Amino acid sequence: MAAAAFKVPTFEILSTAQMQELLNGTDSASTKKSIKFGFAKFEAFLGLKQIELGEITTDRLRLDDVLCTFYSSLRREDGSWYSKKTMQVIRYGVQRHFLDLHNFDIRDKATFSQSVRMFKAVLVKLKKEGKGSTKHKPAISSSDMEIIQNSSVLDCDTPAGLQNKVFVDFMTYFCNRGRENLRELKPDDFRLETDEDGLRYITKRDQLTKNNREDDDEVSNNGVMYEIPGSSKCPVESFMQFVSKLNKDCPFLWQKPKAKKPEDGDNWYCNAPVGKNTMGNKMKQISQKAGCSKLYTNHCLRATCITTLDRAGFESRDIQSVSGHHSEQSLRNYCNTSHERKKQMSSHLGSHLYEKRNITLPSATQSVPDPGPGPGPSRPNRAYSMHTTRQPLEIVVPDRDSDNVDVHVNSHQQLSFSLSQEKVHQDLSTTSNTFQIHDCVVNIYNN
Question: Where is this region: Disordered (predicted)?
């Protein structure tokens, strides 16, 4: 009986340098930049103090002492303190150097107890100096988003406007991070699909990102962009129109737009990609040209995506499937209390402190039945249902020559009021009284 053939496995033995190159590929470009920046600061400090790196690498006790002095001495060129975020980036660069090349961690409290304590003390100092908080990019406010959407900057009848419209849609629906992978995007990175209800939607091929460095479906950016049938703002229609107008000789998605669309209707874009810096500053240019209240960055669109979904009540795990975040804690950086909400809170506190006649009504969206006439003289009344937000609700009472006003608030914090038919459109006097009411029944008459 012939011996069974034995299949020899094939291997490619990599050199040490090749294996290191493979390991380096696990870090994003921004991470590599942070490591280089942080360790360069440490090398500059060692040069100033005339300390050899090799000497302290083998002497952990001395390295601990050197790190103490290093952390406490770090300053900007103008002599001011670095921010908390920058300090963390610098320490991370030093940490990764020793971890990658010498296999020990400078954050180990047992070995580097003094420098760990010193770093924490520096962060406390920064907090006292007002540099302890991290400034996260804000979400675009509803009013500014309306300004952007209604401006000519997003005019789909022009090459630049159509590109801007698709850019805003893409960054928001797919929760893209700043300028990450923008320059490398190609039309075939996207697919047009149709669901069981016949609705079209766009999906994007998974890419290496800052958070998604390996095959982990749970943290991949799996956002989808659905069509809005019948809407002139439909993101799918805009995207399909945009792709159809691209220059076929250029493989990239973001191509330089022509000054005006050609008369033949084809090739709205040049055979040249938009520059990396231009793409990185695109949202800043859009918000400036649209006339927004502030300049927004590309990352603000990512913050807008996360904040909007969070306030709509979507679960953190669902938002993570779009944003690519690994933890809920990371999402909380985007889902802080909005400025508008803080404004309402300040108004509430001001009413409590300085306007004793005003008591805030925590309002809700409710349809309230007619409470019926009060104990005063009977008059023909008209009931109104009120749509309110969570803002404090004010009731303005007309002058004495106004008609009868009935106000009713029940224990469930529902509110309704009645005005006579002929007084509905009456302008209220500037000297009218203002009341904020809750948890009671009130009938007001101006006789």
Answer: 321-349, 361-384
Cross-strand bridge partners of residue 419: 382, 405
Residue pair 288/189 in contact (Cβ under 8 Å)? The answer is no
Q: How far apart are CA 72 and CA 39, in angstroms?
A: 16
Q: Which two tokens stand for residue 96?
A: 């990764």
Q: What is the pLDDT of residues 219-258, one digit of tens each?
A: 455 788 999 999 999 999 999 999 999 999 999 999 999 9
Torsion of CA 66, 69, 70, 76, to 10 degrees: -160
H/E stretch holding 202: strand 200-204
Tokens at residue 71, please? Answer: 């952390």
- DSSP readout, 113-145? HHHHHHHHHHHHHHHHTT--S--PPPPPPHHHH
Q: Which two tokens stand for residue 137?
A: 């990019």
C-alpha to C-alpha distances, 157 to 59, 76, 426, nearest whole angstrom: 67, 48, 44
> Would you say 92 and 34 are in contact if contact means Cβ atoms under 8 Å apart?
yes
